[in-house]
Amino acid sequence: MRPDQSLRREAMPSYPSDGEQPLVIIVDDDACVREALSELIASAGLRSTCFGSTRELLASDTLHGPGCLILDVRMPGASGLDLQRHLTQTGNPKPVIFLTGHGDIPMTVQAMKAGAVDFLIKPVRDQTLLDAIMTAVDLDAARRNEAALVKRNIERHETLTPRECEVLCQVAHGRLNKQIAFDLGISEVTVKLHRGNVMRKMEVASFSELIRSWDRLPASMRDSVRTKRTTEAS
Hints:
By secondary structure, the protein is α/β, with parallel strands linked by helices. The protein is about 55% helix and about 10% strand. The chain has 11 helices and 5 strands; from the N terminus they run H-E-H-E-H-E-H-E-H-E-H-H-H-H-H-H. It has a 5-stranded parallel β-sheet, with helices on both faces. Helix 7 packs across helix 9 and helix 8 (about 175-185) crosses helix 9. It is elongated. The protein starts with a helix and ends with a helix. Mean pLDDT is about 85; it is low at about 1-20.
């Protein structure tokens, strides 16, 4: 597994200069494999860090930054599949690539059903592994961007008054101004004022943007507005 110049040129990703760079976390009990993978990943312009077991990884503080994991399946102590299961249970969706010399079909199916990006058998072509790494890093970036949008929408939604929340909920469900006014017992002019305030506070410029912002709110938050309105109406 020796990197070459063509791999360096083709695999080099582009990331914002002010953002945290992705980290490829390698967990394998074979020191030679860890060293070879580190060299290959460096040739693609990425950072990496290595651990000899899942216990070593979990004792560190490296799982919460951007990047992905390359895991062997069979290792002393907890296996790579055990670690993947642990990440799922703790709400950490960091992308996982399995790289093993001991794979079989049931193991592959289990890993892929649990969300693995790829399941590769040693020895593997450098470019095949780099392609999987780039896919995993891009997937992690997309998830983090979406999480940031959700967080920002929650913060904006929390600036709305209770009445503005009700209007937003009604608008998101396709209700017309006159229908909202009737349902809430207010004038149509007041509904328009609330809609304007909602657009401004949610920092959107169009109805479609407003709907996307509503859809990105956690389901529990959207349901609480509907439940509150239903309770008051009854």
